[in-house]
Amino acid sequence: MDLALERVGKRIVLGLPLGLGKANHIANAFYARAKADPEIELTIFTALTLERPAAPNALAARLLDPISERLYDGYPDLEYARDRRRNALPANVRVKEFFLPPGGLLSNASAQRDYVSANYTHAGRAILEAGVNVVAQMVAPGRDGRLSLSCNPDLSLDMIPALLERRKAGAPAIILGELNAALPFMGQGADIPEDWFDALYDAGKYTLFSIPREAVSTAAWAIGLHASTLVRDGGTLQTGIGALSDAVAAALKLRHENNGAWRDAVGVIGADMQLAERWGGVERFTQGLYGCSEMLTLGLLDLFQNGILKRRVSDDVDRQRALLADPDSLREDEGIALHGGFFAGPGELYDRLRQLSAPERARIDMTSVARVNDLYGHEELARLQRQHARFINTAMMVNGRGAAISDTLADGRVVSGVGGQYNFSAMAHELEGARSVILVRATRQTGGETRSNIVWTGGEVTVPRHLRDIVVTEYGVADLRGATDRDVAIALAKIADSRFQDTFLNEAKAAGKLEAGYTLPETARQNTPERVQEGLEAAINGGVLVKFPFGSDLTATEQALREALEWLGQRNSGWKSRAGLIASALLRAPAAHRFAAELERMKLTQPAGVKERLEQRLLCLALSRTGTRG
Questions:
Q1: Is residue 371 within 8 Å of residue 121, measured between CB atoms?
Q2: How far is CA 232 from CA 86, 99, 358, 427, 533, in A?
């Protein structure tokens, strides 16, 4: 800390990596010094600040607090995040982020004011132009003077050399590393010399932040199954994070390992086999896929370790051309099967990465996000490597012109950030044979009401209409590329929930995009959760489609409780819905003995007082409503 102040003075622009790779101890030291000295002007420029999940109420705390203690014991919380959460940052400290924890800071004034909208590939430039003069990153210790940027080479591989060049020209800058022996050592591009850093702080070995896995609902499984028909053997795969991306990875694994069960599942949900034949496939993966994804997820790693992400590419243009001409010429010791920019996820992801064999580790290249998310600077090589690319990402909503709304609400509040979604959508239009696939749940629960995510108008657009491509809901696939506005409206109506199709069509007609007499075919009028549930029931009951295809950090009882509390949370907004919820709990909640294990885990077997008795009734009601998948 003293060295940094000596080098750069009291105006500090501290760059911290996105997500996992923040040097928490060093960041806390800078923040503590700034709080104690108002003459220090501290700007923290980062993205995706990770915080322990906070219970929204006392009932949720009964579940969450023990889980938090189990998962985050030994994790050093970021003090600036804690103060920002309370809107208590000192006047001399600002925190600028280009990606926020999804939905976590919607009502936080400081975070909303200091959000920076930037494509992931442009974020490093934004940080450099903001005058960053201190970089602090968690790194994995190695041997013989080597370190690994591990989880976050994404921006650092470009920013640190740029800062070193600035320093040669006389600009003050300091680069700090925080050693954490728990961090997996990743080689290839992430393997760097120690002398990139001016100072290293050895933090020993401390807990890596674990991002809890979401349950894959029946609707999510249907979306993943539809999307899995669009992936071509011998192609390229990119996915994001969350339950929908888990569903895609799990569906691809099912397609490869149990092709008969996969065919049955895509058949009952009415997957478009003509589209699959043209753009994807229905067979097992013999050539395999090449992974090129800004985020290395547990789902992608699982596909890699199970022989699905196995198409290896060369980073030499001539050699890559030769491999395309003769794939059998690939040597056992060459090639990369997965390029990634960063990783963050559940504890199992970190465990698996630490346990990789030497040959497996050599086939994963954690590298610059500019290398993964774009074509510029390496276009010839990227075009040769990214054969039949499928860039699969998630949106909150899709509007009637096919534009994706993924990060910002209509009132301007930021839910998350652009990340790489725009880059991948644009790249899909630039690469021969590539497609952008936007996944969106057909509906959402807001304040106890079901609302459509296929909307005529909505929030800020993340991917504009001129980059519209493929949209997938649980009800099917809409191929929008090259379509007229009329045909786009019809295609989206066909994959919307049937409860909202007429409203959507009427708005399209009012806007002049659809003739007044148009009616939707009856075959598209059966889009209901019940139909999807019924179609996939056999696969669910048979254990083919499970809620946590890549495991869970929670016990089965905790999983059931989590779903129940989420159900309550969706119906506890506004006094009317709250009153209705309480009335239902008092009048219709089933007997407590049906949920003995869950109530014991929540310490509500013998409630004390009116408040706990009501909590017990609410919990029993929610457990009864979430006892089956939906």
A1: no
A2: 48, 31, 29, 17, 27
CA neighbor of 374 nearest in space, from 438, 424, 312, 431: 424
Nearest to 427 by CA among 475, 397, 385: 385
379 with 499, same domain: the answer is yes
CATH number at residue 308: 3.40.1080.20
Based on the fold, state whether residues 578 and 498 are members of the same structural domain: no
Q: How far apart are CA 360 and CA 265, in angstroms?
A: 32
d(CA 359, CA 352): 14
Mean pLDDT over 51-79 rounds to: 94
Ramachandran assignment for 109, one of left (phi > 0), alpha (psi -120 to 50 degrees), beta (any other): alpha
Query: Is 594 inside a domain boundary?
Result: yes
Residues 168 and 108 in one domain: yes
Is 402 a domain residue? yes
Q: Is residue 325 part of a domain?
A: yes
Domain containing 569 equals: 556-625
- Please answer whether residues 241 and 416 qualify as being in contact, where contact means their C-beta atoms are separated by less than 8 angstroms: no
Where are the strands (E) in 569-626, listed by range?
none
User: Domain end: 202, 232, 249, which one?
Assistant: 202
C-beta neighbour count of 113 within 10 angstroms: 9
CB 451 within 8 A of CB 397: no
Kindly report the number of other CB atoms within 10 A of residue 38's CB atom.
11
DSSP string, 95-138: EEESS--TTTTTT-HHHHHTB---BHHHHHHHHHHTT--EEEEE
Q: Are 106 and 224 within one domain?
A: no
| Residue 299 belongs to a domain | yes
Q: For strands 146-148 and 93-97, give the pairing.
A: unpaired
- Same domain, yes or no: 276 and 192: no
Q: Based on the domain organization, do 150 and 222 belong to the same domain?
A: no
pLDDT tens digits for 373-385?
999 999 999 999 9
Alpha carbon distance 318, 326 (integer Å) = 12
pLDDT per residue as tens digits for the range 504-548: 999 999 999 999 999 999 999 999 999 999 999 999 999 999 999
In 3D space, the residue among 46, 240, 29 whose CA is nearest the CA of residue 152 turns out to be: 46
Phi, psi of 477 (to 5 degrees): -120, 130
Label each residue of 198-262 as H, E or C: CEEEECCCCCCCECCCCCCCHHHHHHHHHHHCCCCCCCEEECCCCHHHHHHHHHHHHHHHCHHHH
Helix, strand, coil in percent for the chain, rounding step 5:
45, 15, 40
- What is the CATH number for 102? 3.40.1080.10
**Which residues have a Cβ under 8 Å from the Cβ of 527 and sit 6 or more positions away?**
442, 475, 495, 496, 497, 498, 501
Per-residue pLDDT band for 17 (boundaries 50, 70, 90) equals: very high
Using the predicted structure, report yes or no on whether residue 577 has a pLDDT greater than 90. no
Are residues 388 and 270 located together in one domain of the fold?
A: yes
pLDDT, tens digit, 9 for 90 and up, residues 339-366: 999 999 999 999 999 999 999 999 999 9
Write down which residue in 152, 172, 202 finishes a domain.
202
Q: Which residue has the tokens 């936080």?
A: 108
Q: Which of 156, 146, 127 is nearest to 192 (CA)?
A: 146
The edge-to-edge listing of strands for the beta sheet with 389-394 is 364-366, 338-343, 290-296, 236-238, 389-394, 435-439, 470-473, 476-479
Cβ–Cβ < 8 Å for 78, 51? yes
CA distance 152 to 430: 27
